[in-house]
Amino acid sequence: MRKILFILAILLLSVNVTFATPTKRTYNRLIHSIAYIESRHNPNIVSTNGLYVGYLQISKVAVDECNRLIGYKKYNYRDRYNKDKSIEMFHIIQNYYNPNQDINLAIRIWNEGIKCLLIKKERITPYMKEVLKLYNEKYSHIEEWCYKLYF
Q1: pTM of the entire structure?
Q2: Which of 1, 24, 80, 118 sits 20 to 30 Å CA-CA off 145?
Q3: Beta strands in 87-133 (DSSP E)
Q4: What is the pLDDT of residues 131-147, one digit of tens each?
Q5: Residue 41 in contact with residue 35, Cβ under 8 Å?
Q6: Do the beta carbons of residue 135 and residue 30 sit within 8 Å?
């Protein structure tokens, strides 16, 4: 009986790892691509209009939305300058609005906001082309690197 429970526990753990790691690998690569376009990986940059800040160029609206989605005020506007917290906010938004981890949708959500979910017609924007080019070419090695990190 103990042997069976042990085997079941190992199977359950391996299922969790299998499902968890593709998300991290896929989004790490995507985040690097988006961050390059948005800020050239500079967490202290501010957009010319002053509305978007940091590594992933996060707006105050996005910070408020993250706090709403998690149900309490975890993030403040200053957190937009923090690379790790910016990435956490990216994951919160994507996990809620893009649970199937569609890369094209992830890019659209980040660039256009959640209003893109109301538009049924998918379109390839110049921003999306730029991000996808980096995702497929410049940062293609990141997925492999992350794979080694998790295993």
Answers
A1: 0.76
A2: 80
A3: none
A4: 999 988 876 665 544 43
A5: yes
A6: yes
